[in-house]
């Protein structure tokens, strides 16, 4: 193809920024339109903050649209060769997926058909996976069911949190996509159908996904912390109030009563099914963020108490 590849880009989060920035460096690609979610008020003052992708699109003078829904939306951009989706966050109707000449590609953060759905990175961490990767796939009307162009596998570090792994996968996915588009457009790339019998799915996270079950192993709860950082975060309850556990780490401490709180040398621990977690930083409902020693100095009655009941 002699002329640049005219592209619509769907994305919202920082992950999408990394992908878009790589595409903008390619002389073969012309991003003619960015589709992102509507601006949302955040914080106590409800100030409107642009999505990360909108900020970058404005810097590069790329036209932006932010429809509440894509059900009836029709892009004004004509002669679209390709569309790319990277953590957009809304359902894209089939009519829009097939609108570009070469269809719509998705940068999906798992090794499909494993972990189809909305939270593949968090789910991989939560399940204690040691490997994951990126799949570049052609989207169809199903949930991440389309044919695969290419995949790249990476190792998950044992202490890696969701934001850290998300950032690494963004770089991998962006470079993989940029390398894959030319042979895909030229027709020299053979697409592979997914094995639906091997598929697993993951769902959108809710606040309740962060609730700690102290009857689980210390490693399971630590994986939950890694996966749920920064949202919804992990939490428990004490005296009927929510207690956010903002920084934790496994501790070499025996357990005899899951959920029991203890303190040693100004360090704060909670026992699990097979050990304990050290709570490094936490926040009681309605209070400010505190270190463990700060919290214990004003809440010594928690020592010996059972949390989460």
TrEMBL record:
Binding, (6S)-5,6,7,8-tetrahydrofolate: 110-113
SUPFAM superfamilies: FMT C-terminal domain-like, Formyltransferase
Origin: domain of life: Bacteria
Keywords: Protein biosynthesis, Transferase
EC number(s) recorded for this UniProt protein: 2.1.2.9
PROSITE patterns in alphabetical order: GART (PS00373)
Recorded GO MF terms: methionyl-tRNA formyltransferase activity
Catalyzed reactions: L-methionyl-tRNA(fMet) + (6R)-10-formyltetrahydrofolate = N-formyl-L-methionyl-tRNA(fMet) + (6S)-5,6,7,8-tetrahydrofolate + H(+)
CDD domains, alphabetized: FMT_core_Met-tRNA-FMT_N, Met_tRNA_FMT_C
Keyword Mitochondrion in record: no
Pfam families: Formyl_trans_C (PF02911), Formyl_trans_N (PF00551)
Assigned protein family: Belongs to the Fmt family.
General function of this protein: Attaches a formyl group to the free amino group of methionyl-tRNA(fMet). The formyl group appears to play a dual role in the initiator identity of N-formylmethionyl-tRNA by promoting its recognition by IF2 and preventing the misappropriation of this tRNA by the elongation apparatus.
Entry protein name: Methionyl-tRNA formyltransferase
Organism name: Candidatus Magasanikbacteria bacterium CG10_big_fil_rev_8_21_14_0_10_47_10
Lineage of the organism: Bacteria, Candidatus Magasanikiibacteriota
Gene giving rise to this polypeptide: fmt
């Amino acid at each position: 193809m002699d002329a640049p590849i005219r592209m619509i880009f769907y994305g919202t989060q920082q992950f999408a920024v990394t992908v878009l920035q790589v595409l903008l460096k390619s002389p073969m690609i012309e991003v003619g339109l960015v589709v992102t979610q509507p601006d949302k008020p955040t914080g106590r003052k409800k100030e409107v903050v642009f999505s990360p992708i909108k900020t970058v699109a404005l810097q590069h003078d790329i036209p932006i649209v932010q429809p509440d829904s894509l059900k009836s939306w029709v892009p004004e951009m004509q002669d679209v060769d390709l569309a790319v989706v990277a953590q957009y966050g809304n359902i894209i109707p089939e009519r829009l997926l097939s609108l570009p000449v070469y269809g719509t590609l998705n940068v999906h953060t798992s090794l499909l058909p494993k972990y189809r759905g909305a939270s593949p990175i968090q789910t991989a961490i939560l399940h204690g996976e040691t490997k994951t990767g990126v799949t570049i796939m052609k989207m169809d009307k199903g949930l991440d069911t389309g044919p695969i162009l290419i995949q790249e596998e990476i190792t998950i570090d044992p202490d890696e949190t969701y934001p850290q792994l998300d950032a690494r996968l963004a770089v991998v996915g962006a470079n993989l996509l940029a390398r894959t588009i030319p042979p895909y457009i030229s027709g020299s790339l053979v697409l592979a159908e997914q094995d639906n019998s091997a598929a697993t799915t993951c769902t959108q996270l809710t606040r309740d996904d962060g609730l700690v079950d102290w009857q689980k192993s210390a490693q399971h709860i630590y994986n939950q912390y890694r996966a749920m950082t920064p949202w919804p975060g992990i939490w428990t309850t004490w005296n009927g109030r929510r207690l956010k556990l903002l920084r934790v780490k496994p501790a070499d401490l025996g357990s005899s009563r899951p959920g029991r709180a203890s303190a040693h040398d100004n360090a704060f621990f909670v026992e699990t099914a097979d050990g304990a977690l050290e709570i490094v930083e936490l926040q009681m409902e309605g209070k400010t963020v505190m270190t463990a020693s700060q919290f214990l100095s004003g809440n010594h009655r928690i020592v010996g108490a059972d949390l989460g009941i």
